[in-house]
Design a protein that fits this description.
With about 750 residues, the chain is α+β, with helices and mostly antiparallel strands. The chain is about 40% helix and about 15% strand.
Length: about 750
Amino acid sequence: MNSVFSNSAFLVLEKELGPDLFYKGLKLHSSGAVQNIQVYESVVTGTVKEGNNSYAVEIIALQDGAEMAILCECGDASKGSPCVHIAALIIAATAGDYDTLPGGAIVAQAATASPNPSLPLWPEPAAEVIEVNYRQLLGRLTVKEMREIAAKRAIPLGGIKRDVILETLVQNLLKPESLHHALDQLPVDSHRVLDFTLLLLSSPVESAGVDALIPYLDAALAPFQGGRSASLCLDELSKFGLIFFVANQLQIPVQLLGQPVINPGLFKSYEGEIERTESSQPYALTRLALRLVLLGQAGFLELEPLPGRKENGGWPLQIGDKPQGNERLILPGEPFLKAECLQGLSRITSEPEEKIDFIAHISSEGNFWEKRNPRKMSEHFTSWLQLTQQEQSRGLFWVAANLFTAVELDAARNEYNFSVWRSPLGLSLDQFLFHLAQDRLRLLGLLARAPTGQWLEIDTLLRVLHGLQPFWLPELYLRSAENKTRKLTSPLVSWIKTGNKTLNVLDYEAWSKTFGQFYVMALIHTFNWLDLCEVAWRYKQPVAFRISPFGEYLLGRRSSFNQPEVNNPSPAVRFEQDGSLWINPGQTDPQLINLVLLIGSPREHKRASDGKMPHDLGYDIHMQGLGHAFEAGWTLEQIVSILEGSMHQPLPAGLAANFQRIWERYGRLHIYSDIALIKFADDFCLPELLSNTSLNQILLFAFSPRVVAVRPDGVARWVDELRAKGYTPHLEGSSHVQ
């Protein structure tokens, strides 16, 4: 997920909702299901999509200050307790700066809309939010403490009144140069501790208290010789106004929760021998995703059936598997695609099976097809096609970084032969997968701080991550001094074993050869396949990595990335004598696919007798399909140009004449049994909405700059989009709007 919860917000939410409902709501929110969030003084409203249904949700803080009313169209909330849709709305609303209103209603000072996969993972908060946050944090300090921060940051203060000092300090802290000055003044070890603290906040340890954090921070500092203790570094960060202590709870300004600052002091350069490297290939995975979805539409993707669930905790168990004592084995996940399907796809794409299965996971989580039915493409896929190739890659990157799967852990277990166990009353499956996703984001948070252009040691990276271990491994409770003599009773536990021997994961060597390999697999598979980084190998072991130029774009350091396209001498399209169009999905671009899906329908394909899949996919071109393309804004010249460019030759004469005839007839007569009219207040609104919204996808005809006709079946979705962007459309006679 792309939101960052504070420790206190995370723990309060989980306590109020209960762990099971919290994690279910969190998973629903992370899928982008929560839309149209509106936050008022005592009311939070929104829409939550689940499957094919959409539910209106409302949370109202009652005036007596004792409770809050919850309403959801699903009906479950009428029983007096929150449903998963209410949980998802609460989590979405608190993804901004956390606060509570009178009456116990959990709301946000600045609500955030559903995640936009074309944006960076760490969007910077608005200046207004930063200002309010600083005023709250600094307002708790004494005048002496405020003057100390001003002196450290080289901020001149005038006057003796508290309010004047506070206002002067807040306005200066908003300036980027003030933050840069503070970071530049910090000793290296304090800068490291600041970064470690920010990483821990995305997945809190046992407590949000400072005492519980210090053992983790000290362990993360261990790989760097000569550093001071984490406690001294935290005191220094406090004096600079980079962190705040409130009742022994650590508070971080939202300004620091934005895009991470590059910190070379977190890494060590690799100076050893390199035998080979795996370079970044921008857009390669994007093209593979495109090809996979097209093969799915043609009927060549065969999904593994969903694994069976055990009632106690929702864990899949193999037939005949029995609990051993008080423990149960967390089994490796099944491949997403069937073995024969993976083998066939690997042959025709020349890609390893694990990479194909990985992109199948991403395509499914991105809702590129209907769940468990890859023959039916979804609106999400057609919307993804409208993005630029750069934005498409960033969209895949966003989905992959938030995957609720055990892909990397399964790869590590297969490679290093270890197992993971849990107590029968321990983590649910969703909780376990959530923590794996948080670990992936923790690694990504470190990579986001890495410099570019140099090889960096993987071993140092692992040692830092070992210090910042997730709190659901039971041995790590021993790091906190107060837990050394206390029996471990928390249900949020799991164990790692080799054979029948339980490993002590506090030992780096044992951890690095087992669970630590989860991070290695995320690095050499997930993020390397997504073109974020390059990997260097020695003696068949990955030893170093470096952030690629395209990785800088994915992380939001660059606003764009331009790489010359490789000219493919082989044509991507051919026409047969019967007028059918055949494409090679491995050589196509999204614009061509977008056109083909508009003007044609896929032909039935059958696998050859030897089980092989075809390299080319056929589509029948229809006059109605050409009409859809014209209605969507395509011109005959554009269509012919794209097809001929993909064919490397002119269109067949008969086909070109047929296209010309349809184009000439188009627009002579339009009959609509049901249309929707849109009226604009001025001549400038239409061009603005055409460029900033999906209006062009439902536009039928423009009568004038102020009146247009649109397809009624798309009005409701477009109205939702307008409201999400801050417009307030007025609806008249809106029976078609649900």
